[in-house]
Design goal:
heterodimer, A: about 300 residues, flat, B: mainly alpha
Chain lengths: ~300, ~325
């Protein structure tokens, strides 16, 4: 009869309904805890924010109720991430330029691309172990053991694959006509790269690099035995060669303290860390969406 | 005129410009080879540092779980077992959830705006640092789930997996926090590979009368399978190497136990816990454990890359 009409009781339609609700359940199970997690961090951490937090040193864990602030850790995170960027960005962008502009898909470039992917998959704690063996235990940096500098180096190993990959992929998106035009009017290869291809890929490379920096800022495992932790203000350049605190290690150390005051400090630090990482992510997403729209026109 | 043309013809770049060009290229070449140098450096350094322990305990290190700095006896079986169990079980939970979510996002059950919001929200979660997840697990998840664990133990205590009384931090909590961490990875990769399946395959299936879910599991999922598999393997590598959240919630006990409700250990949490204050042959043993972890994650990663290359979509 009316077989062309949708029949509710047909077994295939019941089966479809069943699977659809199954996938809805999957989404709910997956999403709800995540929403809960983010709001909890933002509310619980946000309620701990006070002006003194940004200016004081943390007090040593103990029974006193006043935990102090997180100033050294905040500055330490900025310094360590800056060191990591200073190392990883030139090396990564340079390597990416070679892969995208010079290599002709031979064995070497294939090996390097493979290496980039493998390095991206190396557990972050292994980077810490490597820097510990290479720099901390050998005291190669002017006799200092644990130092902010060593921490920055460990982080740079984690940033490097991201930077190379985004540079490589960003440059590959630049149309070849631009290169031909530049070479055709007599520009040399390096002028073409520096004046034509790099600037036109700048925004996509910058987005990727900024996301890489944001990810590195939250890393803990490579820092816990390279930069270690410090309770004291960072006062000068020389402090680079001593133990240096960071927000992520502060969260790790103070979360495991039995005292309430330290735990609150950990929540406040995670609020700052999560808020800055999420805003960088959202901002770069909006920027990327915006560029895509303008490109289409 | 002729003279001028000839002049033009013979005009060459200045030597200095040529040299800059060559220097630029070679600098880029050297910088790109840094990746290989660092990778080989990591492997060699970790291997040579672990040599003392390796020659002393050999492969026995992998199957004994004595870890006693006083008696100088080391074996990492509990940690290796913990690494494998936590990562595999967390993947087992993540795969259906992640793939289910990815299907929901790529199908048109709800308007596109909602799907995009869900998708980008899941991706944003990948950006949350694992140490923050660990903090959350300690203060929110553990108290919240304690009653559930007691229930598990009371009713399923006869299964070895749930045979110990739950007391605070344990392996099951570590597995659950790993699920939270892996979900964004698996979901976004599965979504990308589902999106790459060409529209005409779907239309063809609909055209011969297949229902929506018949189309999904007999046409779209098989076509996207290799991409999903690669994503799953990448997630597995991530789970094995994940340190902070797991260290904070797993309880850190080197005593081997079948039960998921007892405190456990993973290689990375062992490293995070002991590296700072280890000395003597303990350091070498820790390097040995780090070497095992590195080999595990290298194998998984290389296999994932091979899979991507071998079975990438050919439409």
């Amino acid at each position: 009869m009316n077989t062309l009409y949708y029949q509710k009781r047909l077994s295939r339609n019941i089966g479809d309904k069943f699977f659809t609700s199954l996938s809805v359940i999957c989404v709910l199970i997956a999403i709800l805890p995540l929403i809960f997690l983010v709001t909890y961090i933002l509310i619980k951490g946000g309620s701990q924010i006070t002006p003194e937090l940004f200016t004081l040193e943390p007090n040593p864990p103990g029974d006193d109720l006043d935990a102090g602030g997180i100033n050294p850790a905040l500055i330490g995170t900025l310094i360590i991430t800056t060191i990591a960027s200073i190392i990883a960005i030139p090396v990564g962008v340079g390597g990416g330029i070679y892969l995208a502009e010079y290599s002709k898909g031979g064995a070497f470039s294939r090996f390097i691309r493979f290496g980039v992917n493998v390095l991206a998959g190396v557990p972050s704690i292994i980077a810490g172990v490597f820097i510990y063996a290479l720099i901390v235990s050998t005291k190669i940096l002017f006799g200092s053991m644990y130092s902010g500098l060593a921490g920055g180096m460990a982080l740079s190993i984690l940033m490097l694959p991201t930077v190379i990959k985004t540079t490589d992929e960003g440059l590959k998106l630049v149309p070849n006509e631009l290169r031909y035009a530049s070479l055709g009017v007599g520009a040399s290869m390096y002028t073409t790269i520096l004046k034509v291809t790099l600037p036109s890929a700048f925004r996509s490379i910058a987005t990727g690099v900024v996301l890489g920096i944001a990810r590195a800022a939250g890393e803990t495992a490579p820092l816990i035995f390279t930069a270690l932790f410090s309770y004291y203000y960072i006062t000068g350049f020389g402090d680079l060669f001593y133990e240096m605190g960071s927000l992520s290690v502060l969260i790790y150390n103070f979360a495991l303290e039995p005292y309430n005051a330290q735990n609150k400090l950990a929540w406040a630090a995670s609020f700052i860390l999560v808020l800055s990482i999420l805003s960088v992510n959202i901002f770069s997403r909006i920027l990327a969406a915006f560029t895509e729209k303008t490109k289409r026109i | 005129m002729e003279e001028k043309l000839a002049l033009f013809k013979n005009r060459k770049r200045f030597g200095i410009e040529k040299n800059i060009d060559i220097i630029f290229k070679n600098t880029a070449l050297v910088l790109s080879s840094f990746v290989a140098i660092i990778l080989l450096g990591i492997i060699l350094v970790v291997f040579f540092q672990s040599f003392e322990s390796f020659s002393r305990y050999g492969l026995k290190f992998l199957v004994t779980s004595e870890w006693n700095p006083v008696k100088d006896e080391y074996g990492a079986f509990a940690a290796i077992y913990g690494t494998l169990v936590t990562s595999f079980l967390s993947l087992l939970i993540t795969i259906p959830l992640g793939v289910g979510t990815a299907i929901f996002i790529t199908e048109d059950f709800v308007p596109k705006v909602f799907r995009e919001i869900i998708g980008s929200f899941v991706e944003l979660l990948a950006a949350i640092p694992s140490v923050v997840l660990g903090l959350w697990a300690i203060f929110v998840m553990e108290p919240f789930l304690r009653a559930f664990f007691v229930f598990l133990h009371n009713f399923f205590g006869w299964i070895p997996l749930f045979s110990t009384e739950p007391t605070g931090r344990n392996s099951l909590l570590a597995i659950l926090i790993l699920v939270v961490m892996l979900l964004p990875i698996v979901t976004s990769i599965a979504r990308d590979s589902l999106n790459q399946v060409p529209k005409k395959l779907r239309n063809a299936a609909y055209g011969i009368g297949a229902s929506r879910w018949k189309t999904i599991y007999s046409v779209i999922l098989p076509a996207a399978l290799s991409g999903i598999m690669a994503g799953v393997l990448l997630a597995l590598g991530r789970a094995m190497g994940e340190t902070m959240a797991v260290t904070m919630i797993i309880g850190n006990s080197n005593a081997f136990s079948w039960s998921l409700l007892s405190p456990g250990y993973t290689i990375s949490s062992m490293l995070a816990n002991q590296f700072g204050e280890a000395d003597g042959s303990q350091v070498s043993s820790l390097f040995y454990a780090a070497f095992v972890l590195m080999i595990l994650s290298l194998v998984v990663n290389i296999f994932a890359q091979w899979l991507v290359k071998k079975f990438s979509l050919k439409y």
